[in-house]
Design a protein that fits this description.
Strand order of the largest sheet: 1-4-10-8
Number of helices: 3
Strand content: 25-35%
Shape: rod-shaped
Structural class: alpha+beta
Radius of gyration: 41 Å
Distance between the termini: 96 Å
Length: 224
């Protein structure tokens, strides 16, 4: 009887062990939900390049002659100790803006006119004029190979050139490729008629009293 009781107790202890083991195992079980977030960014591209000489190089101190009958004797029609202009001379300068910015851009062109070669309305060498005489005229090209200047961009006075170039300013959307190339050609016509010859001669007699001077500033600014 005692042996039977011992066996019964042992069996009950074994069953109890199994039961408590299941409770212990469930104690260490749990729900797990995992979420992971990650992000990476680089600096947005700017990369705008403005190409323009500090000295525009529009004017020179000497100009080659265009008179085929004189080339055997002289090579220059104008020769001075400083940059000058005269009837029959011409020149040019260029500037450009390029880039593919990833931000919005405010592109501004500014022309500062300091002085111009001009005669106000009046009488000069016996010739009366009712409006200003500006012998130097400018033409703007957006393609150096183009046979004609840009629309409304031909034969401009310096003040008109200022208005034309500054009107090129504008805002550019992000991701837009900027590829703007401009060439400005100036000229002083050699001879139109007796009246313009008289006016040109008057300007030539004034010599250093008249000069043309201007500068161009191009600014590209990020738009917030």
């Amino acid at each position: 009887m005692k042996k039977f009781l011992t066996a019964k107790i042992a069996a009950m202890l074994l069953i109890f062990t199994f039961i408590t083991s299941s409770f212990v195992g469930s104690t260490f079980a749990k729900y797990i939900t995992t979420g992971t977030g990650s992000d990476t960014a680089r600096v947005a591209k700017w990369g705008i390049t403005v190409t323009m000489n500090d000295d525009l190089g529009a004017f020179k101190n000497q100009y080659a002659t265009d008179d085929v009958d004189s080339t055997a004797e002289i090579s220059n029609s104008v020769l001075a100790d400083a940059e000058v202009v005269a009837p029959g001379t011409t020149g040019n300068f260029a500037f450009s803006v390029a880039g593919s910015p990833e931000v919005a851009v405010d592109l501004q062109y500014k022309v500062n006119v300091h002085s111009d070669i001009s005669l106000e309305a009046g009488t000069y060498n016996g010739v009366e004029i009712s409006e200003n005489y500006n012998p130097i005229k400018f033409s703007v090209y957006d393609d150096p190979e183009a046979p004609e200047a840009m629309e409304n961009g031909a034969d401009l006075t310096l003040s008109e050139l200022k208005e034309f170039i500054e009107a090129l300013s504008g805002k550019v959307a992000p991701g837009t490729e900027i590829d703007k190339n401009y060439t400005v050609v100036w000229k002083w016509d050699f001879s139109k008629d007796d009246n313009t010859d008289a006016l040109d001669t008057y300007l030539g007699d004034e010599a250093a009293a008249q000069e043309i001077k201007f500068d161009i500033v191009i600014t590209a600014t990020q738009i917030d």
